[in-house]
Write a structure and sequence with these properties.
alpha+beta, 4-stranded antiparallel beta sheet, Creatine Amidinohydrolase
């Protein structure tokens, strides 16, 4: 496993990429409402990325057809935007997006409520997002990837939620997916030690029910096996001697 250590200059370039990605998410969030389609969100994302002078990281990646992944309700990740997928009151939609600026990637995901959602679903979103914050706090020089994964796993499993094992976070930089893999589970003190200059895409994917998932016939969309709701939050985070630096916030 060859983990690329980024220079401070490279991290600043990734932060500039992340700043654009943050604006894309802000624009897409405005399009999330009952009656909108996931393709409406895709069009907003594509226009915003172009307007801000970046390139979409996902479109064309392994032949993926869109700038966004839009995963609704029991879809975990990699849902493909569609003009036929109409958002309804009470839905949730996980929006994953990446951009490339000056050769450097950034990657972030948010799960948005569509209108009013149930208290149970609201809790899933709040706990998943809180687990990401806790994982980011564990991004300290000398800590391990096990510390990062355990931060997510402990919080989410304590609430009875399923922590997806089939998909994990990843290193990121001049490529979308670099070493190391960043699981959302683990044992504290175990795994690769964190060093200044590593940059990680940390992305809890948490199900309201079982952790089990399956991929649909489109070859992309992963769904919960039991039909339960799923939430997804992600930030691109640099390891620095002064602690975690979130590049997509």
């Amino acid at each position: 496993m060859a983990i690329a250590i980024k220079t401070p200059q490279e991290i600043e370039k990734m932060r500039a990429s992340g700043a654009i990605l943050r604006k894309v998410h802000q624009a897409v969030e405005q399009a999330v409402k009952p009656g909108a389609t996931t393709m409406d969100m895709e069009r907003v994302a594509e226009a915003t990325i172009k307007e801000l002078g970046a390139k979409p990281a996902f479109k064309g990646y392994n032949d993926y057809p869109a700038c966004l992944c839009t995963s609704v309700n029991n879809e975990v990740i990699h849902g493909i935007p569609s003009a036929k997928r109409v958002l309804q009151e009470g839905d949730i939609v996980s929006v994953d997006c990446g951009v490339i600026l000056d050769g450097y990637y950034s990657d972030a995901a948010m799960t948005y409520a569509v209108g009013q959602i149930s208290a149970e679903t609201r809790k899933l979103l709040e706990v998943t997002e809180a687990s990401l914050r806790q994982a980011i706090e564990a991004v300290q020089v000398g800590n391990t990837l096990g510390d990062v994964g355990a931060a997510v796993q402990e919080m989410c499993e304590a609430e009875g939620f399923g922590v997806v094992r089939d998909f994990v976070g990843h290193g990121i930089g001049k490529s979308m997916h670099e070493d190391p893999q960043v699981p959302n589970y683990g044992k504290r003190g175990k795994g690769t030690k964190l060093k200044a200059g590593m940059v990680l895409a940390i992305e809890p994917m948490i199900n309201a029910g079982s952790a089990d998932v399956k991929v649909l016939k489109d070859g992309w969309t992963a769904v919960t096996v039991d039909g339960s709701m799923s939430a997804h939050f992600e930030h691109t985070v640099a390891v620095t001697k002064d602690g975690p630096l979130v590049l997509t916030r």
